[in-house]
Amino acid sequence: MSEPAWSLHSRLKEDTIDIGDLPLSKVLVIKDAHYPWLLLVPRRPDAVEIIDLDEVQQAQLMTEISRVSRALKEITRCDKLNIAALGNLVPQLHVHIIARRTGDAAWPRPVWGVMQPLAHDATEVQNFISALRKKIWLG
Fold it and tell me: Where is the HIT domain (predicted)?
């Protein structure tokens, strides 16, 4: 019997810009210019929790979180990284990696629900994506 095909949840598709694939995870940018905000989504059907991945996949996810977090911190020179796998609205397993500054609109609270998303400047987001892709070995 074949394994079900993986696809990105429609809400994540709508709220993000796809920037590429690491060995396990799709890397996405959240469409909100208030914060440099990335998602890693393991391409495994029916994964809701990190424990739904086998141990090798869990280790790969941690490697990818570390790689992307290091790159995001270096590019943004942020004060703090917020890393979380909540999934309260979107059940598909995804990990948020958000670069925070002590003066941002939500500081020191979580970013969810504080402000309406702000559209990215097209040039700025493309420059950010290009820098990130280089740092995480996507091109």
Answer: 38-107
